[in-house]
Design brief:
By secondary structure, the chain is of the alpha+beta class. The protein contains 21 helices and 18 strands.
């Protein structure tokens, strides 16, 4: 066994990336197992395996952790930017209160435990940093200890204890938050996170049905039917005016395909391709003639395209006004399926107002779509390529913002690389939602950045601190570790109860995002996202996460002063 451990250490010292990917693979495998209704999930599984692997002795450059976390948190912000800025306002007061409650309950828990177990200032601050997974507390507490006017050796000892408390409690700080947010919180609601995430998403869609990849309705909204006319002597334009909700896309007379034009005089026996909404085509069928099937030469490929509205003539116009202004040949052959704004559908009611930057989803033949696109703005081209110019710029801006520091008295406050990348991702994602001619990052690309970034981040944490944590537990006993469990779990439980029964959160997915953000619990949030299957938890997380970076960072000097 000893020889095997030495061999692993030799392998990992030459190629530490093997340890990283081994922990990822085994972690996600372990995370699939269920014990009753409890399941670790891939992120927690990766963290657990990484701690075990770390006992062999692995050194991973800390820069790897920073890169992976920056990619994860930027991708989260980018995906949620449009929804985030639409959600700011008085409706965010609950998130502000939730973040404050967790910070205050965390402070009270640490101070009480320190008094009960006679912890010194350094250990108390370190347990807060690890149990609440807020590494910035190490810096603010260490700086506060240095200003106490103690002897140099005592300052060094207390600052060393900060690191010890942090190392022992950080691993469970991450793991415990996952247990509360993913396993305990849904039991409080009596519903799963996934169910409530789908419910919230349906509400955001304003009643528009949402279909997953590869899904289509059994009864299509728009259909094309072939009819052989029973009566003739009517112009094509007159026929369309008589039945205003259908269009004639093709005409066949005998063996010849006739070019379609408004002035074309239709004759009895002509075969026409009528396209329109299902109910309109069915209602019109009796007035056209006998339905035909598979007539040679009458095939027509239709397109569904998203158009970006950039024509100022339509800005702040109602749907009814636009319909009145685009009668006749302008709208011929084109059907508007949906209007969306920053990712959210706009109800297509007569008095609904459209704005520049709205996305109009249309259906029609290629030439008709191109004609309308030239009038509306431009066609949004689907791509599987990521705009790395935009991605790189967003990350650089975010990381630069994270370097900025402001001081409240002698306490330095900073967003850090994580907060800066999140803020930048929100802004860049929001701007991309308004101007979709550049800055593309396809959904699968966003997903791989989130999955690899978060799981890789927690693996590096486990590989870096797991050995030290286990060694310190052996040397110091289980007291520090046990106190860390209380500091991790108790503030989360108290905040969860206040959020549910006082702040009146009624959606498990939204609340799970807000709760994990208020604890700056990135692994827990990643697991919540995986279960939700959509971005619903992201907006409350982004708000509480930004606040937690400030509130929890302030705990360092407060703990030093109160313990």
């Amino acid at each position: 066994m000893k020889e095997f451990m030495e061999w692993l250490h030799h392998i990992f010292s030459k190629a530490p990336e093997i340890a990283l990917f081994l922990s990822l693979g085994l972690g996600y495998y372990v995370g699939k197992f269920k014990l009753g209704s409890f399941q670790l999930g891939g992120v927690a599984g990766s963290l657990l395996v990484a701690v075990i692997v770390s006992q062999v002795g692995v050194h991973v450059d800390p820069g790897v952790k920073s890169v992976l976390f920056a990619l994860f948190i930027y991708a989260v912000g980018y995906e949620s930017g449009p929804q985030f800025f639409n959600s700011l306002g008085r409706q965010s007061l609950k998130e502000i209160a939730l973040a404050a409650v967790l910070a205050l309950s965390g402070l009270a828990t640490v101070v009480v435990m320190a008094k009960l177990f006679a912890l010194d200032k350094g250990l108390a601050a370190g347990i807060a940093a690890g149990g609440l997974t807020q590494s910035a507390i190490i810096g603010t507490a260490g700086d506060a200890i240095a200003k106490l006017g103690l002897a140099a050796d005592e300052i060094k000892r207390l600052q060393g204890n900060v690191a010890i408390g942090y190392a022992v409690t950080y691993v469970f700080g991450s793991f415990g938050a996952i247990i509360v947010c993913v396993n305990i919180l849904p039991r409080l609601f009596g519903r799963g996170i996934r169910d409530d995430a789908l419910k919230a998403e349906a509400g955001l869609q304003s009643g528009v049905p949402v279909f997953g990849p590869g899904q289509t309705p059994a009864t299509a909204e728009l259909v094309g039917r072939l009819y052989q006319l029973e009566r003739g002597g009517v112009a094509l334009q007159a026929l369309e005016d008589e039945h205003a909700t259908i269009t004639i896309e093709r005409v066949k007379r005998g063996e010849q395909i006739i070019e379609v034009s408004p002035q074309l005089l239709l004759q009895a026996g002509d075969i026409v391709l009528a396209v329109g909404r299902r109910e309109a085509v069915l209602a019109t069928a009796a007035h056209l003639g006998r339905e035909m099937y598979a007539v040679e030469g009458m095939e027509l490929t239709m397109q569904r395209r998203d158009l970006m509205l950039s024509n100022r003539a339509f800005h702040n116009q109602s749907v009814a006004q636009i319909r009145a202004a685009t009668l006749g040949g302008v709208r011929h052959g084109v059907f508007v399926l949906q209007i969306s704004r920053m990712g959210r559908p706009v109800p297509m009611l007569p008095d609904s107002v459209v704005q520049l930057g709205d996305v109009v989803t249309v259906y029609g033949a290629e030439q008709d779509v191109k004609r309308v696109a030239a009038l509306v703005g431009y066609i949004i081209v689907d791509t599987d390529k990521t705009d790395f110019v935009y991605l790189g710029a967003g990350l650089v801006v975010g990381l630069l913002v994270g370097l900025l520091t402001a001081k409240i008295g002698s306490i330095p406050l900073t967003l850090g690389s994580g907060g800066g990348a999140l803020l930048s991702g929100l802004l860049f994602g929001w701007y991309r939602g308004k101007r979709q001619s550049f800055g593309a990052m396809p959904g699968p690309a966003v997903q791989i950045l989130k999955d690899l970034g978060l799981a890789g981040f927690v693996v590096v944490v486990g590989l870096s601190s797991g050995l030290q944590a286990v060694q310190t537990i052996r040397a110091q006993g289980l007291t520090i570790f046990g106190i860390g469990i209380v500091v991790t779990i108790l503030p989360l439980i108290l905040t969860m109860l206040i959020g549910r029964y006082v702040l009146r959160y009624d959606n498990a997915a939204i609340f799970a995002g807000a709760l994990s953000g208020s604890r700056s619990a990135n692994p827990a949030f990643g697991e919540v996202l995986n279960i939700a299957g959509n971005t619903i938890p992201t907006v409350p997380f982004a708000i509480t996460y930004a606040l937690a970076n400030v509130f929890l960072t302030l705990l360092g000097p407060l703990i030093v002063a109160l313990v």
